[in-house]
Amino acid sequence: MTILETQDLRKYYGAGDTLVRALDGVDLTVEEGQFISIVGTSGSGKSTLLHMLGGLDRATSGKVFIGGRDIFSLSPDELTIFRRRQIGFVFQSYNLVPVLNVYENIVLPIELDGEHIDRPFVDNVIETLGLGSKLSNLPNQLSGGQQQRVAIARAPATNPAIQIAPVPTGKIDTKTSQEVLSLMQLSSQKYGQTIVMITHNEEIAQLAGRIIHIEDGRIVRSGEV
C-alpha cells in the first residue's frame, strides 16, 4: 500500500537571475513499511525534500500525500495536529526536553495530543532500543548515543504513518552510528514503520532497503538495495 506520494513537487526561491530551483518536479512513491535513504550532495535538494515530506515547509507547487491525505490542503493548525499524529521525527540534534526524563521525552508527543499511551507498545519499543534501565535519567545524564536512542524511540511511539530521519548519525561516532542505523532497521522491520532518511554517505545509505539519489532538485535514480 502506498503511504507516501509526491506529485510534481517544486520549491523555488528568488526570481529571475537569482531563481533557485531547490526542488524541480519530484515524483516519489513510498510503500508502507519501506526504509528508504535519500542521497545527495550538499545543495542537491535532499533536505528541502524532507522538509516538504515532513510538512515543515510548504511547496511552491505540487502535492504531498501521506496516507492518502494532501498535507498542503490542511490549514496551519490542522497540519500541526497531523504532523504530531502521523509523522515521527528523528532529529539530528535529538530535541529532547532537558527537564524531562527519558520516559517522559518518549511519550511527550502522545501526551501533547491528549491521546492514551499504549504502555505495552511503548514498553516494547523502549526494551527493543535498550533504554529500560535509563527511563528516570535526564538527557544530560546520557551519552550522545543514548540520547539518539531516545529520539529514535520517540518517533515510533505514536505509531505514525512515516518517520523522517534527517541524517540521524551526524553528531555521533562511527560505532554508535552503526548501532543507531541497526536500531532504525529493526524499528522498520519489527513495527512495520515507514522510514525516510537523508544522508550524503553511500555506505550508510546501503543499510536502507531502497536508495533514491537526488541532484539539482530532481530524482536521478532510484532502486532497491
Instruction: Describe the largest sheet.
Output: 6 strands, mixed
Question: What order do the SSEs take from the amino end to the carboxyl end, as H and E?
Answer: EEEHEEHEHHHEHEHEE
Cα-atom radius of gyration: 17 Å
Q: How many alpha or pi helices?
A: 7
Number of domains: 1
First CA to last CA: what distance?
Answer: 20 Å
Q: What is the fourth-level CATH superfamily?
A: P-loop containing nucleotide triphosphate hydrolases
Name the average pLDDT: 87
* Low-pLDDT segments: none
Give the helix level as a range of percent. 25-40%
> How many strand segments?
10
Q: Going across the major beta sheet, what is the strand order?
A: 6-7-8-3-9-10
What is the global morphology?
Answer: globular
Tell me the strand percentage band: 25-35%
Just give the CATH class.
Answer: Alpha Beta
Structural class: alpha/beta
3D architecture notes:
By secondary structure, the protein is an alpha/beta fold. It has one domain: Rossmann fold (3-Layer(aba) Sandwich), CATH 3.40.50. It has a six-stranded mixed β-sheet with strand order 6-7-8-3-9-10. Strand 4 and strand 5 form a beta hairpin. Helix 3 packs parallel to helix 5, helix 4 runs antiparallel to helix 5 and helix 5 packs parallel to helix 6. The two termini are 20 Å apart. The model has no long low-confidence stretch (mean pLDDT 87).
